[in-house]
Q: What sequence folds into this?
């Protein structure tokens, strides 16, 4: 089996101490969830990580894979350099992955961006993973944002049997509803709590059904960015066997943050 672990992680810059300046403590459950997640994967060091970020460039109705050889940037716009990265992308591996997904009829689009400065979806989780491992494994950057729910699950199912002789981790980055309470970044909607409950239920059950049963209007109203990442992870874990473990959920700033993990 190629996959050592799959992790669902939130990506609010405020939980990085250099950004939060103390306010990260308001998301204490999330930070404890991150710590628990890292404890579970600390001894499972992959050669490569496939990172699903809704803040990477996306491809219309397809899974977008970044083919840039060098990607640099971080959270400097948020006032810190502690989450800056210089990632050297293994291009031959990317080509192999794209070819494999094509053989599984997964629509795949190619993007090429060397700028990580606008991608908090990658930078925040990678900041914590770097602290965990000391040095990051090779990272392949991608975005599931252009896919519908069904294709997101199929992507995960296809990834389950991908094997290039290396050990992999799947990092599914995503925040949940951005409309959980008055004053939230995108305003308030009762759809937010309904949506978040469905995603957390799906992760607890290792079953995408609670999310698949939501109406498109409710999903739109919830204002989320992490649904497709979660569905891809669930599709993969369902094929590989075992269960996902939800480690934390909260919405202290009006945005839902969830940590969940599967290990082989």
A:
């Amino acid at each position: 089996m190629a996959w050592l672990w799959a992790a669902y992680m939130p990506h609010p810059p405020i939980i990085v101490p250099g950004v939060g300046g103390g306010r990260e403590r308001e998301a204490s459950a999330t930070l404890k969830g991150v710590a628990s997640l890292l404890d579970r994967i600390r001894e499972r060091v992959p050669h490569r990580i496939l990172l699903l970020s809704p803040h990477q460039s996306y491809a219309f109705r397809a899974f977008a894979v970044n083919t840039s050889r060098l990607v640099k940037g971080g959270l400097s716009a948020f006032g810190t350099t502690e989450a800056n990265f210089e990632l050297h992308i293994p291009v031959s591996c990317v080509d192999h992955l794209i070819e494999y997904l094509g053989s599984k009829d997964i629509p795949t689009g190619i993007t090429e961006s060397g700028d990580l400065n606008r991608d908090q979806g990658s930078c925040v989780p990678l900041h914590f993973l770097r602290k965990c491992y000391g040095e990051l494994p090779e990272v392949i950057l991608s975005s599931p944002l252009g896919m519908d729910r069904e294709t997101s699950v199929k992507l995960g199912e296809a990834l389950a049997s991908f094997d290039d002789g290396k050990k992999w981790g799947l990092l599914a980055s995503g925040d949940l509803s951005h409309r959980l309470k008055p004053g939230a970044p995108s305003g308030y909607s009762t759809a937010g709590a309904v949506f978040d409950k469905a995603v957390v239920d799906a992760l607890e059950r290792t079953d995408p059904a609670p999310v698949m049963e939501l109406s498109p209007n409710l999903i739109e109203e919830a204002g989320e960015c992490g649904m497709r990442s979660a569905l891809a992870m669930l599709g993969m874990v369902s094929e590989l066997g075992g269960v996902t473990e939800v480690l934390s959920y909260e919405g202290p700033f009006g945005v839902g943050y969830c940590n969940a993990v599967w290990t082989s």
Q: What stands out?
A: The mean pLDDT is 97. The first strand starts at residue 3 and ends at 9. The chain has one domain: 3-263. The longest helix spans residues 191-205.
